[in-house]
Amino acid sequence: MRLNRFLAAAGLGSRRQCDELISSGQVTINGQVCTDFSAQPSPTDYVKVNGRLVRTERPFTIILHKPAGFVSTRRDDHARDTVFDLIPAKFSHLFHVGRLDAQTEGLLLLSNDGELAQHLTHPRFKVDKEYEVTLDKPWDSALSQRLLRGITLDGERARISEIHSLSSTRLRVVLRQGINRQIRRMFEALGYQVKRLIRLRVGNLRLGDLPRGHWRPLTPNELASITPRR
Question: Structure pTM?
């Protein structure tokens, strides 16, 4: 198992995040700094990150119905509530798979499976994320094509992949990108304010009737539906 995958399996983040740990010299194997991405630790090797011994653990993923007002981070400098305040302390080693901004609600995964996180969040895999959007005024459906064609944000073409009207002010949209505050900023560019935003689905996994602020482990079938083939 390559070093970045070993670290990801130990719950230290996605493989891309683990690559950063390796390249910055924070990883040692048997006491020697290792910046070789192709290194493959053996079962008898001692792998440490910043001096702490790393052990792989059984993959574990939970689904959380994130309420508005909670930030998707482990700690917050502004003393705001975090998603980790909503789950038991024994799960503090999990990391959030992607982010929802503070005021966005809905489906958030927390996991120790870096490979799963990579598959669900990296743009090249184009995993659907479905949201319900409530706007501050009636939607002009003629503008839908502008969202589908794309709007430039931070020098990048931001696109909504699908858009469906539910009522005059409520829409369902699907993203396959992950630009910061993408939905809110795209609608703002067209003169609308997003009053409420809730993520309903990631890939084949749906939020369903999980109450706001509650969590549960994924079922084996749910996990299989979003896990890449290894």
Answer: 0.78
